[in-house]
Amino acid sequence: MSTNTVAALLGALLTTAAAAEEPIPLEHFFREVPVSQVRISPDGRYISALVRADALPEAVNIIVMPVTGGESRAITGYSVEDVIWHEWDGDRIVFQVTRGKDERTQRWRYAGIYSIKADGSGGREIYSARPSGDMYRTDSTKAGKFSSRASEDVGRYGLRISDSLPLVAGTMLAHGYGKRAYFPEAYRLNLSTGHFLRVASNHSNVLAWYADQSGRVRIGVDAGSNLEDMTSHLLYREDERADWRRVLDFPDGDVHVIGFDADNRHLWIAARMDRDREALFRMDPETGELGAPVAEDARYDVGSRLVRARDGQPLYLEYPADRTRKVWLDPTWRELGAELEAAIPDRTVDVVDSDDAERFYVLFAWSDRDPGTYYLFDRQELALRELLRTRPWIEPESMAEMRPIRFEARDGMAIEGYLSIPAGYGKPGPLVLHPHGGPYGVRDEWDFNDEVNALASRGYAVLQVNYRGSGGYGRGFESAGFRQWGRDMQNDLEDAVAWAIGNGWADRDRICIYGASYGGYATQMGLVRTPELFACGISYVGVADLALIHKEAMGTSRSAGEYRYYTLAGFSGLRGSWVQSRIGNPKEDSEYFRESSPIEHVERIRAPLLLVHGESDWRVPIEHHRRLTQALKAAGKPYEEIIEHYEGHGFVAAANRERLYESILAFLDKHIGAQPVDPAGPAGAAEN
Prior knowledge:
Layout (H helix, E strand, L loop, with lengths): L2 H12 L12 H4 L4 E6 L5 E6 L9 E6 L6 E2 L7 E8 L2 E7 L2 E2 L4 E2 L2 E7 L5 E5 L18 E2 L11 E3 L5 E2 L2 E6 L8 E6 L5 E5 L5 E6 L5 E6 L9 E5 L8 E6 L4 E6 L6 E5 L7 E5 L21 E4 L5 E7 L3 E5 L2 H13 L4 E7 L5 E7 L6 E6 L4 E7 L11 E8 L5 E8 L7 E5 L16 H8 L3 E6 L8 H5 L8 H15 L3 E11 L1 H12 L6 E5 L5 H8 L9 H6 L3 H11 L7 H6 L13 E6 L8 H12 L5 E5 L9 H18 L9 H7 L1
Parallel strand pairs: 10-11, 33-34, 33-35, 35-36, 36-37, 37-38
Antiparallel strand pairs: 1-2, 2-3, 3-4, 5-6, 6-9, 7-8, 9-10, 12-14, 13-14, 14-15, 15-16, 17-18, 18-19, 19-20, 21-22, 22-23, 24-25, 25-26, 27-28, 28-29, 29-30, 31-32, 32-34
């Protein structure tokens, strides 16, 4: 590909989309993101990024541009493959290529690890797994001339790059799944020769390995010999020749290892231990002492998003609260951060990368209405320059504001969520209750959400609820949702609707419930439990039968899907304990399972129902859809359905997603009707 062609393509990416039509084209929300993973070379001379260009829309390639500005060029030229990861190693770029994952087999069709110089020369194949592994050989000729290197076979499940094992001076550490799919060994890969050296063997069900700032693997987190108790153990060794020692135990696996500090002795972790909420610690693994928390929050888990300099020195901790919050750990960056966020107002500004001299920084600025823009910050000159917009066709001022809300559930528990209001919304109006999936350990956050903005662009208010069981609010809040499918978790959703009606946001006759996975289950259960509350429901890859999902999760059903891999990997005890504690046991809790399975109560459904499923879904297999539709037919209940044969747990192909949301919006328009949207956005609506 010529330099001029790439420059033209990037020029198109950087050009702001024309004034929004009315309505905003639906494809704007679901087309592929053209820019990601912007990085800077260690010497501070070049910027690199992954780009999906109009000339090669079926592929993701690497582009490189000078830090000083000027022309950009593509250094790979794949036509169907995707570069999914890249990182600088001196003056070379190391990258991984895949041709996508087969949803049915859960294996990468093609993949390999390669390196190339910044000018596009010197292409080198580093690793390509044998056809028996996860990563198959790719046709590297499509990316230019790559010299082949002999790679060792790390076994049936292949090699996987992990953020916990960094790239250090000509070598890369990776997890190798030679024997079992979930318990890796650690390998050091020579980026010049392609040769492997195993640096950590797995003899104790280790789930992940972690290296220090010098690239030495010194930390492991294992599940222990008794997989049923769900306790994680922190393993430590002084160097790669020393024996491993077990230094700390974490009940219920409540630990996230972040990495070694700049001193190469202390370890940053986020954990609960004997606390309700996760806090940030700088522990000493030599002694096993956790010490006092460095950062904590009275209401929220602080999580593990610790942003660090190249040498491991922490800059700040970022975590989701009602909005995104930061705890600055570097005094200099506390002042710089305030100045940067003042220069890019109404945005969260994150540090993405820097050169070795820490003069140039890549920043990423985003908000609930802005999917994000990359900037280059020159710390020496205190200069800021826009680099690339991730979605240049999105006009932030036309997007919906995501407002944090809080209400009290019927039993007094405080519940939080978000209400997104379209421009020109007249109170009360049509509302979509949109419960998240999971349900445990995940939550809705304040950020740019494609689905929410697509619905809001057509005039629908969207209510998202972090019901009990959601993550991020502490152990007590999450465990309050255990074995509460169709009970207290469903009560929280109903109480959220009551809040929206009581505060004048929702027209009680124009409310629809729409969710995916567990959210699809909640949709079905909402139409069963409170048929008078919802005018319609949309269940997307939803669970219909608790007894069936229990059998699948235990790996004892023909439709077990991905859960069968837990059994094959020796994970059945751990998975079984998790399922029993969160969902229940159909033998001991038979009445609860019957009461809380929508498939057992389809005769109660009165509202129109749209069912969406991927036939290749491994998480909630298509058997749920088939059993539910059989029950609906037997009860004489009408329904609509959308089935995609080559999609799985959520549609991935942009064209399929766009068609899906065209159907969803048509369904909503038919049953609860949207309001007209002010094309000028929220500002225009206020003015009007």
